[in-house]
Amino acid sequence: MTDQDKIAQFYNGKSVFITGATGFMGKVLVEKLLRSTRVKKVYLLIRPKKGVQTKARLQELLSAKIFDKLKQSSPGVSSRVEAIEGDITEPNFAISEDDERRLVEEVSVVF
Description:
Elements: H1 3-11, E1 15-19, H2 24-36, E2 41-46, H3 54-62, H4 68-73, E3 81-85, H5 97-106, E4 107-110
Parallel strand pairs: 1-2, 1-4, 2-3
């Protein structure tokens, strides 16, 4: 088994929580996880910014050129990505109680 296979196997069926996903490296990480693994769900901490709501920012992120090839090869891939509204500069990331509970119950890996 190659190292790449071991990594893919590690993420198989797991949920991941990522902060900083809207930045360049965050997009690269999200694309790589979705393309190279069978990760169950990727939760992204995204804050509303300049009047643009979290869900709109998620759609903006997923429309970046880096995701084009992935969306062609796996059309339903965006269903495995979900935005969690919050702000990394706030206590508890300003995440709602429901979202916090869901993250605690489902997430195995945090970036």
